[in-house]
Description:
Low-confidence stretches of chain B: none
Number of strands of chain B: 9
Strand content of chain B: 35-45%
Structural class of chain B: mainly beta
Mean pLDDT of chain B: 94
Number of helices of chain A: 0
Helix content of chain B: under 10%
Largest sheet of chain B: 6 strands, mixed
Shape of chain B: globular
Number of helices of chain B: 0
Order of helices and strands of chain A: EEEEEEEEEEE
Low-confidence stretches of chain A: none
Oligomer: heterodimer
Structural class of chain A: mainly beta
Largest sheet of chain A: 7 strands, mixed
Strand content of chain A: over 45%
Amino acid sequence: EVHLVESGGVVVQPGGSLRLSCAASGFAFEEHAMYWVRQAPGKGLEWVCLVSGDGGRAECADSVKTRFIVSKDNSKNSLYLEMNSLRPEDTALYFCARDASSSHYDYMDVWGKGTKVTVS
Amino acid sequence: SSELIQPPSVSVFPGQAARITCSGDALADRYAYWYQLKSGQAPVLVIYDDTERPSGIPVRFLGSNSGTKATLTINGARVEDEADYYCSSKDSSQNNKWLFGGGTKVTVL
């Protein structure tokens, strides 16, 4: 069974840094692109970043691309999100999600339960 | 424009059909995806590629896409279908960037 578990969410001061992790199991992690998506309190979903299966290509939303770095360690079946220069508007529940395809960017098919980040 | 518009809420009685619309220019040449969110749980994909249902999703969930509007229909809605539903698609001008609608709260009265 495919399983994604996020961790690392805490309360951090504005301007601070944080690294989120997502532990994956139940599938060939190295074959799948991965995503970070967030949901601010009372708001909708917002795509944050994606990284290719081999970790060599990454893209992030304009709202975070100068501050966040996404990466994956295929030897550890783990996805990461390094968050810098955090702002109150980054406060959100952060989800990791798997891409459905093992060969190209397709869509998010399996998600974790999320980890909560509070910038205050 | 790079946005997807959903109604904030939809209410139905048990057994009735709930219809949730999602409008946006991106849907003219991109697939629509639908996710179900319940508090404290992982989001669940209920429709992919406009009309396809993942394994394990009940047949009462139907998707359609006509031009710039996608629709998720829950036929014979059940109490357990009460949740927030989000549509999503790739940005039509930036292939690896994703859009989400604002979400629709479905209440089964």
